[in-house]
Amino acid sequence: MRYINYIFILLLLSKSQAQVSIQRLMNDVEILSSPEMEGRMAGSEAYDKAAQYCVSVFQENGVKSLQHSSLDGYRQNFNIQSNTVNKCELKITNSQGKFYKLKLGSDYVCRGFTGSGSGTADVVFCGYGQAKDSYNDYRGMDLKGKAVMIFKANPPFTLEDEIWDNFSIRRQVETAKQHGAAAVIFVSRHNEKFQSKPIGSLMHGEGKHNAEIPQFQIDISWADSLLEGTRYPLERLDNLIEDLRMPFSVFTQSKIEYDVQAHYNPQTPTYNIMGVIEGSDPELKSEYIIVGAHLDHVGKIGDLVYPGANDNASGSAAVLELARLISQNRDKLKRSVIFTLFTAEEQGLEGSKFMAQNLPVPKEKIAFVLNLDCIAHGDSIRVGNGKSYPHLWEKVKEIDITKSGKVVDATWGGGGADLTPFHNLEIPGLYFASQFSYTHLHLPTDTPETLNKELYKDMVELIYHAILELE
Is 0.70 surpassed by the pTM of this model? Predict the structure, then answer.
C-alpha cells in the first residue's frame, strides 16, 4: 500500500512539474539579479557567473549543445567593445556657495561611454549642444576646461535652412570636445512629457565606446541648482530657446568637482549561450524553433549595481523554465527547439546579430523565432512583429483566448530588440514583452519585488503553448 501511495505521489509531482512554476521562475530571477551577478554586463566575470548558472540548468534538463563551427559547447564566442565605469563621483558648488555631494543612481549617473578624468570645472549651459551654421549653441562661448550642460535631445523645432541630424549622444559629446569641454552634463528637457531619470546605459553603434572625457546625466532638479545664480531656471531656458528658435547659452557661475575612472577594452570576449532539445516528429524534428532572451544587462557604475530583474532576468529565467517544461514533455514537441541566451543586447544587439550571421542550423530550417524581453512588469501582454507575420500573431491570440486573455489587441511590424537581426533575414518571429514594462528600466530599482508574478506566469504559459502549437 505504501508503495502504491509513493507511486501516486510521484505521478502527482510529475504532473505538477510539467506546469509553469512561478516559484522556479522567481528563484531564477532572484539568482540572476542578485548582487553577486553585478548587473550581468557582457564581457564581465559576473556575466560569466550568470551564463554558467544557465548552462547548468540546460545540462540538468537534457538540453544538448549544438554542433557548429561557431560554437564551443554551449558557447558562441566573439569579441565586443566594453567600457567599465569603476568610479563615478560628482559634487556641486553653485553660485551661492552651496555645496552638494550628489547621490549616484538617483541624482546622477555616468553615461555608459564616459571617459576618465578628475578635477574642478566651471559649468556652462549650452542648450542642445548644436554647432550648425544657422544655429550654434557654442557661438561666443569659451568652453576650454569647462563642463558643458546640454539637453539630451535635438531641438524641438525645425529651421528653414537647417535639418537636424538623427539624434546622437555620441555626436553631442564629440561636438563639445571639439569646443574644448572637459566634461559633459546631460539633462532632460524640462518640457519633455516623460522626463528621463538618470539611467544606467551602455554605448552602442559605430565608433569607439569611450569618449575620453567624463559624461554625466543629472536629475532635472540639480540642473536648477546649477542655474541658481542666473535669472534663468531650466524651464525658462527651455521655453526661450523653443519660442525664439535661437540659442540661449549662459555661464552658470557654478562649479563641479568630479572623479571618473573608466576602463575601455576594444576586444572584450563574450558569448551567446545556446542548446537544443530535439523534436519527436520524425520529419519535423529537422526544423527548428529559436526561443531567445538576452542575458546581459547594464552592469554597475562603481559600487552601484543595476539588478535588471525585469530587463532581462525575467526573459532569461523564462527560457530556463521553458527548457524544463519542454524537457518534461518531449513527446508533445514536434520541431526541435534551440534555447538561446543572447549577450550584449545592451551594446546594440551584438549577440543576436552575431548569431544571425552565424546560424547554427540552415536558415531555411528555422520555422520561427520567439524573443522574450522585459516580460514580467506591468499588467498585460504585448506581442510584437505580428504585422509582419500575421499568421503567427493570429494563432497566439487564439491560444490566449483559452488562457489568461491578457494579450493586448495591438501589434507592430519590423522586428524589435533581439528579434530584429532575424527579421532582417526574413525569418518569421514574434517579440513578447509586458505592457507598461519600463517603469524601472535601467534603474537600480529593477528588482524582483517589482515583478507581477501572476502576469509573469501567464506570459510564460502562453509562450510554452506557442512553442507547441504555432505552425
Answer: yes
